[in-house]
Design a protein that fits this description.
The protein has about 475 residues and is of the alpha+beta class. Helix content is about 65%, strand content about 10%. The radius of gyration is 36 Å and the shape is elongated. It starts with 7 loop residues before the first helix and ends with a strand.
């Protein structure tokens, strides 16, 4: 604030400062309102309204300083302008305190009617402060105290009170601490302004430039308040998301385990029943039960694999591709039709690179499993060809088959979750999606070339690590 009038340059500096505070206050009001609607944090609604009042006050104070001389002016327009500035300043404080009470209780501590009464009380109090001594030019010191000094000390006490309450919450995070510290510091600057008012009233010389420097401090602190609450809300949401993800992971693992146990029992009982039952119709029904149970087990297994793929951290180590392929073959060799398919691959001890073993195994395993699943074993030479191509900074894993192939219109969708190109497919629709997730974690890429009825070629490019 500026209390010693007389420097045109200072008038300009302070006017620019007030305008800058107006811009920041509007931005804060918008941000708080946006966060209120996005995160459903109710107290931010009151704080948004509070910063709108602050912005309005910052528009009016330069008018009072430059257009009207508060020391001598008693014109109706001048008094109305002073009333508006004081009213908006006190409304800002009231809205901030309403938000604080809501933050503490989690609900509106004041009803709508009580808030209206509060704002009306502020209007009456502001009107009294403006009208007292307004017609007596020699009483400018009294007007200074009523219109500016009293507002400064009330603002200071309110902000310091808000800061003390926030400190008492002991909320973790950098953002909340930055917001609280900035609110506390803003309260101290208002106390300093009150000290300047007292010095003026007591005829103590005060350099009029000093308050203009504090105008810059106001800008910095208002910005810090906005930045602090932004960081705080982001930290808060990140913490909530981490908790939800942890609970979701736990739920997936527990549920999957609980589901797979009865499925294993169903499959075991079905196999026993097929050994006892001789009726063809009964056997057919047991085959159907077995098929559906195996499909459910496959879906659960894929969900678990997806969870491991997306959540597990990377462990970069030396990968022996020959070993990876042998592990994958041992897993899929009992799949339906696998024994009829010829694997074309030439082992080489130099096929070594650095990457994450689990992710690479998931990628190769799903691609080969898909190639087996969608193969045409009735043709003359069903095959799956695996090639490992070494490049200076990357490796390419190429898996080719002469299976059923993929229609051109489906090729862009095959990597989507739960997408199946044919209703005849007995897959889960998760295999290729899991592949893309694993490749993404390794910062690689995948391409596909396919022709319906002739086969497919999948190329996975991975950095050497």
């Amino acid at each position: 604030m500026r209390y010693n009038i007389g420097l045109d340059t200072l008038d300009t500096v302070l006017t620019i400062g007030y305008f800058a505070q107006f811009i920041l206050a509007v931005l804060l009001a918008y941000i708080f309102n946006l966060y209120y609607k996005t995160f459903k944090i109710n107290f931010l609604s009151d704080w948004s309204i509070g910063w709108i009042f602050y912005a309005l006050a910052m528009v009016i104070y330069p008018i009072i300083m430059v257009v009207f001389n508060w020391k001598t002016s008693s014109s109706p327009i001048g008094l109305a302008t002073s009333l508006a500035a004081l009213l908006f300043s006190y409304c800002h404080i009231f809205a901030m305190l309403c938000g604080l009470s809501m933050m503490d209780s989690g609900k509106n501590a004041l009803s709508k009617n009580l808030k209206i009464v509060g704002y009306l009380g502020i209007f009456v109090f502001s009107l009294i402060c403006v009208l007292l001594y307004s017609q007596s030019p020699p009483d400018y010191k009294s007007r200074l105290f009523l219109r500016i000094g009293l507002k400064d000390i009330i603002t200071s006490v309110a902000y310091l009170f808000v800061a003390a309450k926030l400190v008492g919450r002991k909320t973790p995070g950098v953002g909340f601490k930055l917001m609280t510290t900035s609110i506390f510091a803003y309260g101290l600057t208002q106390a300093f302004y009150f000290g300047v008012v007292l010095a003026t009233i007591l005829n103590v010389d005060v350099n009029p430039i000093i308050p203009s420097y504090f105008n810059i401090v106001d800008l910095f602190l208002i910005s810090s308040i906005g930045l602090g609450i932004t960081i705080w809300l982001l930290e808060n949401e990140a913490s909530k998301m981490a908790k939800v993800n942890s609970e979701l992971d736990s739920f997936i693992y527990r549920t999957s385990h609980d589901l797979r146990a009865p499925i294993a029992s169903i499959l075991g009982i079905t196999n026993l029943a097929k050994m006892e039952v001789k009726d063809e119709t009964g056997l057919r029904y047991f085959d159907m039960v077995e098929s559906r149970a195996e499909k459910m087990d496959s879906v659960i297994a894929d969900i678990l694999t997806l969870a491991r793929t997306t959540k597990a951290g990377l462990k970069i180590e030396m990968i022996d591709f020959d070993k990876v392929l042998q592990e994958v073959i041992s897993d899929v060799k009992f799949n339906k039709g696998a024994k009829a398919i010829n694997l074309r691959y030439t082992p080489d001890p130099t096929y070594v690179f650095y990457s994450d073993y689990v992710q690479v195994t998931i990628i190769v395993g799903n691609l080969i499993s898909n190639a087996v699943k969608y193969h045409n074993v009735e043709q003359a030479d069903p095959f799956i060809s695996v090639a490992f191509i070494v490049k200076p900074t990357e490796v390419v894993i190429e898996i080719e088959d002469n299976g059923t192939g993929i229609a051109k219109e489906h090729q862009k969708k095959i990597f989507d979750m739960f997408f199946r190109a044919s209703t005849q497919s007995d897959g889960t629709g998760l295999g290729l999606y899991i592949v893309t997730e694993a490749i993404s974690k390794l910062r690689g890429r995948i391409t596909v070339e396919s022709e319906l009825g002739k086969g497919s070629v999948f190329r996975v490019t991975l950095p050497k690590g």
